Amino acid sequence: MKTLTKLIMPLALSLLTTADLGAQELIANVYGRETQSLNGKWDAIVDLYDQGRKNKIYLNRKPEGKTDFYEYSFENGLRLDVPSDWNSQMPELKYYEGTVWYARRFDAPKQEGQRQFLHFGAVSYRCRVYLNGEEIGSHEGGFTPFQIEVTGKVKPSGNFLAVEVNNTRTPDAIPAMAFDWWNYGGITRDVSLVSVPDAFIEDYFIRLGKDSADRIDADIRLSGATPGTAVEIEIPELKVRKTAVTDERGTATMSFNVKKLDRWSPAAPKLYRVIVSTDRDRVEESIGFRNIRVEGEEIVLNGAPLFLKSISFHEEIPQRMGRAHSEADAVMLLSEAKALGCNMIRLAHYPQNEHIVRLAEKMGFLLWEEIPIWQGIDFANDRTREKAGRMIKEMVMRDKNRCALTFWGVANETQPSEARNAFLRYLISCCRSIDDTRLIVAAFDLVRFDRERQLFVMNDPFIEELDVVAINKYMGWYHPWPLTPDKAVWDVARGKPLIISEFGGEALYGQHGPADVASSWSEEYQAALYADNLRMFENIPNLRGVSPWILFDFRSPFRFHPTNQDGWNRKGLVSDQGYRKKAWYLMKEYYDKH
Ligand code: GCU
């Protein structure tokens, strides 16, 4: 493995230039700007041995003289959909890990006084971007957006854009070498050319004051504007029109009280039309306002204690065996969660596309979002920590105006160590440096049964640094019951709210068998397991939410059983073909009662 890692590391890392973008500024609300979509069929070249960059194929050269020839051409070859993973687009790429080059031409009619940015919703997992033969940027991280300014670099017509994408797993990556979901590669989310005025509204954060039911706080940042520029916020329905001027850093802050505010909640997901404008720019979007806080062992939303009826799903459309990326995909995933009776989604295990986040907010789901700090991460590696910090900042920057976002998740099933603690403290500081209004959570799999005390307990002092503690516990699947569920009492993280962030077991839809034999992989076994866990949950005094693992069966390269799994993790309440298993109905009944 060492040799292999030694080989893989330089190749994959060589994809990132020193120009690798830091936790860069992101234009807020790209979908609310003037954009030209670059989605569609792109030309592609599968570069199995990473020969493309050294042969400068991004120059897209054509033979001129009689002795010229090039052993590549982007035209008349493979074509791949963007956005989409490559794995689901052709059988030969189902398991592919390596480099694929994408390329397309586009026109960018000159607009005086405008600045242009190429914006990528996400590229999995790392990439280098070349425009008209020049390398203009790179990015690492398969689940967060990035942008590259191309003002003055784009021509009115015939621009040639090439993107070198690589999804090779490496020990210093996030996630690292092994994770329980499919390693989809590609330009997996929307790509657009964003045009903004040369003095534009780059970013804003508009929210209800953390401890106020009627004070709105706003931070706005302009780019390219002179200090002292007037910025206005308008919320017509609240009869609000407030102005402030920018300081020497281009930022303006406001706080103002409002009357008759309808605070957002799952039961009433009220959003307001908010307009931010200056003399040169204007942008608007729908923003909700709510209060979320912890009071002792309670999670309190708008002053009332809350019980989280949650579910997880991966960013995957099982029927298509591909990564979800569109609004239609978001409708499919979220409609099934709504049918189950949920009021929250744990977006596992990485920031999912903005269509899902925005639609979830409109539909009234609270959201937990996390970066894939999944089990074995190289916590002692400074570069890995820098990357993780950049990723979590990109996540928070993108979604900070989404009031549905309630929890920032900083880890999933990590083992206690000083290196891990320092790493997670850094991530928490990165979140709070942008947003100190939301709750910080992490999921642990460290609860064990103490035979002497006959209690379920946990010992990881790091939980003191979290607002809410989440536990993944697979009683009846990975862990046989040490006593009957009605006697399974927990003494975990008292004084803090506790969420069961994962529980469940596998069943192959339509497979029936004894409810007490795990290897039956039967719907009956899964349903009995759910009934047992729901019974145990009654004995967790500080339980404030549950989130079964998982809504849909999902693809995973280490689910080897040829008939029960066949490369699928079968813990879904719904099969990969969309059929609800028996356990789905138990969960529905439980949520309807809570
Ligand atoms: C873990 C992990 C999940 C995984 C699940 C399982 O708890 O967080 O990502 O899929 O267990 O084993 O099915």
Keywords:
single chain, alpha+beta, TIM Barrel, 3 domains, eight-stranded parallel barrel, six-stranded antiparallel beta sheet, 17% helix, globular, disordered N terminus, binds alpha-D-glucopyranuronic acid
Major sheet size, sense and barrel closure: 8 strands, parallel, barrel
Strand order of the largest sheet: 21-24-25-26-27-30-31-32
How large is the count of helical segments? 7
Compute the number of structural domains.
3
Short description:
The protein is α+β, with helices and mostly antiparallel strands and 594 residues long. Helix content is 17%, strand content 30%. The strands form nine sheets. Strands 21-24-25-26-27-30-31-32 form an eight-stranded parallel barrel.
What does this protein look like?
- By secondary structure, the protein is of the alpha+beta class.
- It has three domains: 5-194, Galactose-binding domain-like (Jelly Rolls, Sandwich), CATH 2.60.120; 210-289, Sandwich (Immunoglobulin-like); 294-593, TIM Barrel (Alpha-Beta Barrel), CATH 3.20.20.
- It is built from seven helices and 34 strands.
- Strands 21-24-25-26-27-30-31-32 form an eight-stranded parallel beta barrel. It has a six-stranded antiparallel β-sheet with strand order 3-2-4-9-6-7, with no helix packed on it. The protein has a four-stranded antiparallel β-sheet with strand order 1-10-5-8, with no helix packed on it.
- β18 and β19 form a beta hairpin.
- The relative contact order is 0.10.
